[in-house]
Amino acid sequence: MAAFKPKKASTPRIVVLTSSDFPYYAAPESFVRQMAYGLVENGVNLKVVRYWGDRYSNKNDTGIDCADYLFVRPAKNEFVKFLEFGIKLVYLPFFVGYCKWFDKRSAILLYGLDSSIFLVPAILCSKLFRIKLFRVITEIYLPDTYAKSWWRKPQIYFREWQLKYFDRFMDGVIVLSTSLRDLLVSNRVRPSNILLNPHFIDMGIVSEKKTDPVFRVGFGGTPTIGNGITDLIDAFNIFAAKVPSAELLIVGKIPSILNKALNIEIAGNSAIRVTGQLGYKDVIKSLSTCSVLVNPRRAGLPADTGFPTKVGEYFALKKPVINTFCGDLTLYLNDKEEVFFAEPNSPSSLADVILYAYNHPELSLAVGNAGYKWALRNLEYIRNTKKLIAFMQLGVV
């Protein structure tokens, strides 16, 4: 009698519908890219679809199938954007039906699509076509970041209603923080339908370029007030008064609304350099020259509900990290062990911690190594995408 052979699990087929560009630009693109890499390396047949189209004309050199939801480029005129949104909403049933019946996808994973005006129809379509629907919530954004136009103002309510009433009907929700998980539970989302997964970080990105002899303080990301860039510049100026040879490197593009103000702060200060927008590999090379890397994010709802991409990438570089005391990092990490903590919204506290790291080079080296090991256990993208696949219950890989 022939031995029983268990049926081989079919290859999971997932489509990621993302509001970010793909594969490169800023933190949202980094998140989706590394999540996508992890899914593919764990055996998933993956397709990434850009909801807004190709915003930044980045070459897709990932080998991952990528397409645009409907339009190749996003509209620029506000009235045309309003019409575009309506057309995309009408197109939704066709998109879900195509994913299910023609592309043979078993699940749709949404990233950055947070409004009930889109998500409620998406939930109804997923039930109708019998395809699983999940979404990732990275943080709670403040209204002034997404409701700038007249027609976007209702988004404030649509996002609130989605969290309060409709996320419970998703097949699952992936969150990056305990506060988001607790919020969903309080809104009657079943705990078994929530996956807390802080991030997907490539822990093998260490550059061959070594730290320069000069003590260089580094920041990588979007230099905004909420991200603490003005606090960091003020802190560096306090620190540089005691260590005149030090430098500050800001890797990122300063938003136009802040450009004039920050240029006034930086003007004539040769110790502060702003690179502007760089490619992913150049970002890593630049940050690798720094002695210490800083996440000076200000306290508030976004900081408490998210997990900063930049910190995960800082850890991957094996550099000592200075982080403001907010968010889930305060639950996971210990001061002067895996990270250096500073008080948020306080340039003087930040300056004191930078000075402490400067005065204790051996401890800083140990902190950088310990932070790397913690991130390797908790943020590594292949390990965490295995958890994601198991949560989505799409087969064993």
What do these coordinates show?
With 397 residues, this protein is α/β, with parallel strands linked by helices. It is built from 14 helices and 13 strands. The strands form 2 sheets. Strands 3-2-1-4-5-6-7 form a 7-stranded parallel β-sheet, sandwiched between helices. The longest helix is centred in the N-terminal third of the chain and has 25 residues, at 78-102.
Quick synopsis:
The chain is α/β, with parallel strands linked by helices and 397 residues long. The protein contains 14 helices and 13 strands.
Count of DSSP helices? 14
User: What sort of overall outline do the alpha carbons produce when their principal axes are compared?
Assistant: globular
In sequence order, what are the helices and strands, one letter per element? EHEEHEHEHEHEEHEHEHEHHEHEHHH
Mean pLDDT: 90
Spatial strand sequence of the major β-sheet:
3-2-1-4-5-6-7
Kindly list the characteristics that best describe this protein.
single chain, 397 residues, alpha/beta
What is the fold's blueprint, element by element?
Blueprint (H helix, E strand, L loop, with lengths): L12 E6 L8 H15 L3 E6 L14 E4 L9 H25 L4 E5 L4 H14 L2 E6 L17 H12 L5 E4 L2 H9 L7 E3 L19 E5 L8 H12 L6 E5 L4 H11 L5 E3 L5 H8 L4 E4 L5 H5 L3 H8 L4 E4 L4 H4 L7 E3 L4 H13 L1 H18 L2 H12 L5
Parallel strand pairs: 1-2, 1-4, 2-3, 4-5, 5-6, 6-7, 8-9, 8-11, 9-10, 11-12, 12-13
